[in-house]
Amino acid sequence: MLDKFHDECGVVGVFGNSEAANLVYLGLYSLQHRGQESAGIVSSRRGKLHLEVGMGKVADIFHDDRLQRLEGHMALGHNRYSTAGDSALHNAQPCLINYSEGSLALAHNGNLVNAVSIRKELVSTGSIFQSTNDSEVIVHLMAQAKDDSFVDRAATALKQVKGAFSLLLMTEDEIIAARDPQGFRPLCLGKLDSSYIVASESCVFDLIEGEFIREIEPGELLLINKDGLTSYFPFQKTQTKQCVFEHIYFSRPDSFLFNQSVYESRKATGRALAQEHPADVDLIVPVPDSGVISALGFAEESGIPYEMGLIRNHYVGRTFIEPQSQIRDFGVKVKLNAVKPVIKGKRVAIIDDSIVRGTTSRKIVKMIREAGAKEIHLRISSPPILYSCFYGIDTPTRNELIASNQDLEGIRKFLEADSVQYISIEKLLSVFSDPKEKFCTACFDGNYPVKIEDKESDIEQLNLFMSGQ
Ligand code: SF4
C-alpha cells in the first residue's frame, strides 16, 4: 500500500425506481475509491428487506444472479474500508436487523467516538451484536427507542452518538439520510426522473444520468417516502466542521461537495502552494494520481513546464507475488515508475497531496534521483499531518506520523530531498468558498471539533474493534 490516509466508506440509496438495486450497484462502482474491502446492497421487496454482501470490490461481488435477487423499488448500498472493526464479512455493511417494529438496514460512513461506551451499556442490557464495527450501535439504539415513528426512533438513536456519520437507514418502505451536526463527511441528494438518490459524492449522479439537487445539510435528517421528502433538524445546532481532507485527497475530483468542485479546489490549492512555496526548478512532476491536479495548478501559477515524470500502474491489485530474489522497494516500484528521459539532468519539483509516514515519499525521491534528477524539491498540498483522525479515516498513531516526530529539516533529511515545503493551514483554507471555520483541520492542528475526552479509552476503543472482541 502507498503511504496514505485511507478512505472511509461510500454509501448510496435509491428510492422509487424499479431498477433500484442496479442503480445502487452503479453508484457503489463510482464510489469504489472510498472502500475496497467489502460491499453490500439491501433492497426492499414485498415488505421484506433482502441483503447481499461480500468481500472485495463491487464488480467482483455483484454478478447478474445476485442483482436479480435484489428486486424492489428501494435499495441502499455500502462500500467499506475498515476504520473501526476488523476486515471480515460480519463487518460488511449494510447492517440488517429484525426487531419488534420490522426490519432495519443501515449504511454508515464515518466513525463514532463514543461507540464503545454505548456498546458496553447495550450489551449489559441484553443486546447481542453481530459485528465488531461501530455502526451497529445505531441500529440497536433504534431498536430500543420507544418512539412511534421511524424518524423519531432515528433521531433518538442519533442524538446519543458522537462523532462522524453520513448514513442511510431503510425500512420496508422508507429511507432516511442523516448527516451529523458537524457534517464531517459528505452526503448528497440527487434525482433521476421521479426517483431520489442519496450518495456520498455527486459523481454517482453523473454515471446514472441523474441530477444533483443539493447536499444533505449538517445536522439534517431527511425522510424519503411515498409522500416525497421531509427534512428534520433534531440535533442541537453546532459549528459545521467539514473534513478538509475530502477535498485534498479522498473524494473524486469530478465530485462537488461542501459547496465546491473538488477539481477546482485541488487546482487552486496547487496554485496557492506555488505562491507560498515557489521552487526554482525546470519541471513540475506530480505523484500520480493524488498530486496530479494540484501539480497542474502549481505549474500554471509558476509558469514552469509540467511533465508526467512518474507513471502509475493502475492494474496492481491488493496483493502481488514478489519474486524470491528480493527487489529493492518493490512495493512502490510495482506501482510507480520514473520516466528517465523526462527526469534526467533536470531540477524537479515533485507535487504530492500529503506525507503520512514518509516511507513512500522517501522511495519516490530515491526513484527520481536514480532516474538522473539534478535536484529534487517536494511541495505538499496539505499541511504537515501531526495528529490522528477519529472521524472515519484510517490513520496511523501519532508515533508513526513523520511530521509529528520530526521538524522540517528532519523530514527533508529523512526523505533525502533538496527541499521540502508544505502548504500552511491558512493558505489551504483560503481556496474554499466556505469560511475557514466550517472545516475540520484536526489532523493538522489537533483542534478536535468533537472532543475526545479520554484519549486512552478512545484508542482502546479502536483496538477493541480492530481485534474483533
Ligand atoms: S481530522 Fe483530518 S482527516 Fe479527520 S475529519 Fe478532520 S480534517 Fe478530516
Short description:
The chain starts with 8 loop residues before the first strand and ends with a helix. It is built from 18 helices and 23 strands. Bound molecules: iron/sulfur cluster.
What small ligands are held by the chains? iron/sulfur cluster
Number of helices: 18
The CATH topology of the largest domain is Glutamine Phosphoribosylpyrophosphate, subunit 1, domain 1
Q: For the residues shown, what is the average pLDDT?
A: 91
Helix content: 25-40%
Task: Catalogue the unreliable spans.
Answer: 459-469
| CATH classification class of the largest domain | Alpha Beta
Q: Specify the CATH homologous superfamily of the largest domain.
A: Aminohydrolase, N-terminal nucleophile (Ntn) domain
Which structural class best describes the helix and strand composition?
alpha+beta
What is the molecular shape?
globular
How much beta, percentage-wise?
15-25%
Largest sheet: 7 strands, antiparallel
> Widest sheet: strand order?
3-2-4-1-10-9-11
- Into how many domains do the coordinates divide? 2
CATH architecture of the largest domain: 4-Layer Sandwich
Count of strand segments: 23
- In whole angstroms, how far apart are the ends? 26 Å
Radius of gyration: 23 Å
